[in-house]
Design goal:
The complex is a heterodimer of chains A (312) and B (159). By secondary structure, chain A is α+β, with helices and mostly antiparallel strands. Chain A is built from eleven helices and 17 strands. In chain A, the strands form four sheets. In chain A, strands 6, 7, 8, 9, 11, 12, 13, 16 and 17 form a nine-stranded mixed beta sheet that branches. A four-stranded antiparallel beta sheet of chain A has the order 3-4-2-5. In chain A, strand 3 and strand 4 form a beta hairpin. The N and C termini of chain A lie far apart (39 Å). Chain B is α+β, with helices and mostly antiparallel strands. Chain B contains three helices and ten strands; from the N terminus they run E-H-E-E-E-E-H-E-H-E-E-E-E. In chain B, the strands form two sheets. In chain B, strands 6-8-9-10-7 form a five-stranded mixed beta sheet. Chain B has a four-stranded antiparallel beta sheet with strand order 1-2-3-5. The chains are: A alpha+beta (312), B alpha+beta (159). At the A-B interface, helix 4, helix 5, helix 8 and strand 8 of A face strand 3, strand 4, helix 2 and strand 9 of B. Strand 8 of chain A pairs antiparallel with strand 4 of chain B.
């Protein structure tokens, strides 16, 4: 398996040229991917309460700016280390990659609902779901890997989330008799969209890996749909660009089982539609309703989000 | 039939009653929540009242930890203290900014003369560089000292 260091510019550029047919400006994409990524934090209303943290954030991180498209979230300069701030340790703030923020919002969970986060660690999106639900209802935060449960439990505890149950199971084999109103399938992927992160994650993107992970992703999405009550919603998301892991996975879902719904991104977040064909293969037409977040459009990492509605 | 891993505690369970009495919580503070005891470890957890572990497999945790033991309502976890400590009307030691920063970094404080002695207390004070007051975590009486019982990962120093 080929692994390319995330911050090896030549290797990264060479690999990303694969996506030239999909993007509006390949040079802008490549240039964006060589720059360090901004940090991003959001205010946790469960613990911050009515405290106005704007002054504190801008004092601790000069140059910090509120995100125009998501109230309560802030973009910080790349070298900021918010994890050491008192407000962060107390759970008033939480850090998360900007491009990944919208997936939980796309699921649009409501207070009192039963919601599943199928691959939950480290719990960023689980916490978002709980906050969006006013910490009322149930979020089952599932994680397969025992070593990742620590970060999941720690984050939910630090953020004061009382509406979550943490479970350990392979997301492809979760059982549930009641059915979920909504399921977030934020699946493992080749992580190409995280290349700007400073923590040295590696891409794993040779063909064999892509084929293997795509099979896992299809199984996870099928299970997510099966666990959702008829009429319920599933959000499928990844942090990668590869159509094989995005639209190709959606294409594996039988149209009679789920439709892919149009998504309207919030004003200020630039997105591109899902691609309907790739390397000679045509996908089901409603994959165009999925949204891609390219790094050069919003100066973020990369992300992919699709919302499906279970039919039967 | 196997014993359930989590058992709900009724509102008149001795732990729940003692928790309210020790910290002076108003009766409705946990109206939207339920206390659960783990039958294997004995620890007590607090979850939204919509949460029901029945029928959910391979559970690791339910809500947030409250205490390691049903016998220790006076020894709340850091997560519980930080989420619900602001509603406590008893057993809270309010300190100034300098003392708060010292305690938040793991340091001990002299037990205040005007605070009744107890095994445990909650320590609250202004945050470094931020005038907002927060419950920092649990303190423990040892001699004349108020020791910091905040886990290292949850401590913080002035930025």
């Amino acid at each position: 398996m080929t692994s390319i260091p995330a911050h090896h510019p030549a290797a990264a550029v060479e690999h990303l040229r694969r996506y030239e047919p999909l993007v509006d400006d390949i040079d802008a994409l490549l240039e964006a991917c060589t720059r360090p990524l901004h940090r991003c934090v959001w205010v946790n209303p469960l613990l911050a309460g009515d405290h106005d943290l704007a002054g504190v954030i801008t004092a601790r991180a000069p140059g910090a700016e509120p995100l125009s498209w998501l109230p309560g979230a802030w973009r910080l300069p790349a070298r900021t280390r918010p994890g050491n701030w008192p407000e962060y340790r107390l759970g008033w703030l939480h850090g998360q990659e900007e491009a990944a923020l919208w997936a939980a919002h796309a699921l649009d969970p409501r207070p009192g609902q039963r919601v599943l986060d199928q691959c939950a660690a480290p719990g960023n999106k689980t916490a978002q779901l709980a906050v969006l639900m006013g910490d009322r209802g149930l979020v089952v935060a599932n994680e397969k890997k025992r070593e990742r449960l620590t970060s999941l439990r720690h984050n939910l505890d630090r953020l004061g989330v009382t509406s979550a149950i943490v479970t350990r199971a392979d997301g492809r084999h979760i059982t549930d008799e009641l059915g979920f109103d909504a399921v977030l399938a934020d699946v493992p992927c080749s992580c190409e969209g995280t290349s700007r992160k400073p923590d040295g994650r590696r891409w794993q993107h040779d063909e064999a890996y892509r084929d293997s992970i795509a099979q896992t992703q299809k199984a996870l999405l099928r299970r997510a749909i099966a666990l959702t009550r008829p009429g319920g919603t599933v959000v499928y998301s990844t942090c990668t660009f590869a159509p094989e892991e995005n639209e190709g996975v959606l294409d594996a879902i039988e149209p009679r089982d789920a439709v892919i719904e149009p998504l309207v991104p919030p004003a200020g977040l630039v997105t591109a539609p899902g691609v309907t064909s790739w390397q000679g293969r045509r996908y089901r037409p409603d994959v165009a309703h999925a949204l891609r977040i390219w790094p050069h459009h919003n100066d973020t990492g990369g992300f992919f989000v699709a919302r499906l509605r279970r039919l039967s | 039939m196997t014993e359930p891993l989590h058992v709900a505690l009724a509102s008149d369970h001795p732990f729940v009653v003692a928790l309210h009495e020790t910290w002076g919580f108003a009766p409705d503070v946990f109206a939207a929540h339920r206390f659960w005891q783990r039958t294997d470890s004995g620890g007590v957890w607090l979850a939204s009242c919509d949460v029901d572990p029945e029928g959910i497999g391979e559970i690791e945790t339910v809500g947030i930890a409250v205490s390691r033991s049903v016998d220790a309502p006076d020894r709340p976890s850091t997560g519980f203290a930080r989420r619900f400590g602001r509603f406590a009307t008893r057993g809270v030691v309010h300190v100034d900014a300098e003392a708060a920063a010292h305690f938040a970094a793991g340091g001990a404080l002299p037990w205040p003369d005007d605070v009744p002695r107890a095994h445990y207390c909650l320590v609250a004070g202004p945050l470094p560089g931020n005038p907002a007051e927060a419950v920092i975590g649990r303190g423990r009486l040892a001699g004349d000292q108020l020791l910091c019982e905040v886990p290292k990962k949850a401590r913080f120093a002035p930025v």
